[in-house]
Specification:
Layout (H helix, E strand, L loop, with lengths): L1 H6 L1 H20 L5 E10 L4 E7 L6 E11 L6 E7 H8 L8 E6 L1 E9 L3 E7 L8 E10 L4
Antiparallel strand pairs: 1-8, 2-7, 3-6, 3-8, 4-5, 4-7
């Protein structure tokens, strides 16, 4: 079998390419983005829904990247916020707050925020402005490791 590999240049070239790819993957310890949230939900009229995610301590400094789409109502729109735990508590308690990311009355949106290991992030869909229509929302979030 080994002699057949040595005599076949195609197989030999393919094995070299595989070896090079494995070398670079191990050398740079490349980590792929991991989908951490992939949910569909209904946000009732005059209400909100939140989804939270605790970034693992091992992630250190990374990024959360995601998108959402909304359907329902006259304009298919919803307001969207991203908060840390402390920011979310302030928003929920009707105190002055700052969000990491905010889109108001949008049909869809994309975001990317820095994320720190050990921190919980809240993704909030706010439908308080709608007195008639429920909204169907799809949220996808990926954790992207920091570049080394």
């Amino acid at each position: 079998m080994l002699r057949a590999v040595e005599k076949n240049p195609r197989i030999e070239m393919m094995l070299r390419k595989i070896g090079i790819v494995l070398f670079f993957l191990m050398a740079f310890q490349m980590e792929a983005a991991e989908t951490v949230i992939d949910r569909e939900m209904t946000v009732i009229r005059g209400d909100f829904k939140e989804v939270h995610y605790l970034v693992p301590e091992t992630a250190r400094i990374s990024r959360l990247q995601g998108s959402f789409t909304c359907k329902g109502g006259f304009y298919d729109d919803i307001s969207f916020y991203v908060f840390t735990k402390d920011q979310y508590v302030r928003w929920y308690s009707h105190y002055p707050y700052k969000s990491l990311f905010k889109l108001e009355k949008k049909k869809e949106g994309k975001f990317e925020i820095p994320a720190v290991g050990g921190e919980t992030y809240y993704f909030v869909f706010d439908n308080f402005f709608s007195t008639v229509s429920n909204k169907q929302v799809k949220l996808q979030v990926k954790l992207i490791p920091a570049q080394k």
